[in-house]
Amino acid sequence: MKQLHLLWLASFLSCVSGCPEVCDCGEKYGFQISDCAYRDLQSVPSGFPANVTTLSLSANRLGDLGAGAFDEVPLLQSLWLAHNEIRVVAPGSLATLVYLKSLDLSHNLISNFSWNDLHNLSALQLLKMDSNELAVIPKDAFKNLGDLRSLQLNHNRFLTLVDGTFEGLTSLSHLQINDNPFNCTCGLLWLKVWAVATAVSIPEQDNIACSSPPFLKGIPLGRLPPLHCAPPTVQLTYQPNQDGAELRDGFVLALHCDTDGQPPPEVQWRIQTPGGKVEITSPNVGPDGRVPGVAGSPQPRFQAFANGSLLIPGFGKQEEGTYSCRATNELGSAEGSVNVALASPGEASEDALGRKFHGKAVEGKGCYTVDNEVQPSGPEDNVVIIYLSSTNPKKNRANPLEQLGPWMLLLCLCHLAF
């Protein structure tokens, strides 16, 4: 219904609308054409007939394209914008052009592009975006372009492309991605495999080459040597103290996130306590537990070290919650989580929790008690109880747990992979 309304509106307006003075408008081969090329224009003119199907604005000095830039011409099938000075294509500038089949944005300065607008352009068959300053393409950018046949992305600034970028392009027959400064790490190996297996024509493959790392510079992607690559793994363990760190008096909760993967993964801690959520990119402290480079800085409440350890000195009720360690590299993510709760002996909560976890032990679910380092030996060991007691506390000792007497630290460990 909406498309019929647009057709009616275009037919009506074509009878009353003229043509921008700087452009030439007319009919050729059954197409309504507006030619505004080579006019030294700095912005998109107004006053087009609504039934225009081909609009050329190439070889001007157009700057940024704002939202609604082409609302006057909803029936466009071809839009030519090459050789301008466009830097930004704002959200909504192209989204209304649902009949568009050919779009040429090549030879501009585009670094900021509204990829979501492409989701509306399902009729698109030709997309030229070469010779710009584009650096990132979202994985779902082309998901609705099932009719796209030719895609030109060459001569941009892409360091990598996400695995699956071209999955939605079921009609694609021609792809140009040469002359980009690709960083040939594990995250780009999929493109090498895909380029060999696909029936899509990919010209100038010797120019689809590595710019980094230095030892691979200049090597075409198709001749890239084998790389040692592995997705991240995570094992989260508990320790009652941390060697080499100056700790306060009182109990220190120490979690250790042991990660592996190639490239080495980045580690992030996510902490959810009754007081709120905290996210920490590791490390946030130096070996002494203080913020590096900040003289006289206090120790953070949660101390993430470069070796993967997280310390919480003076652990108390306010630090109860879920502690998650997430490791991420180019090949994916892995996560380990631990739920930490304190309960005093005799509390109803301890009795209920104890019955629950001892029940798991009877069922052979791997529930056990330790007083040192704990780590699950297999996926069935998802619950661990640690009993600790404070004995003969020194007077005036700054220990926030003294009021609890003997207490129970409950750790529920679960490992998630993505």
TrEMBL record:
Q: Where are the coiled-coil regions?
A: none
Q: Does the keyword Glycoprotein apply?
A: yes
Its signal peptide is: 1-18
Q: Which InterPro entries match?
A: Cys-rich_flank_reg_C, Ig-like_dom, Ig-like_dom_sf, Ig-like_fold, Ig_I-set, Ig_sub, Ig_sub2, Leu-rich_rpt
Q: Which UniProt keywords apply?
A: Disulfide bond, Glycoprotein, Leucine-rich repeat, Repeat, Signal
Q: Name the domain of life.
A: Eukaryota
Q: What Pfam families does the entry give?
A: I-set (PF07679), LRR_8 (PF13855)
Q: Which stretches make up the Ig-like domain?
A: 232-341
Know the name of this protein? Immunoglobulin superfamily containing leucine rich repeat
Primary gene name = ISLR
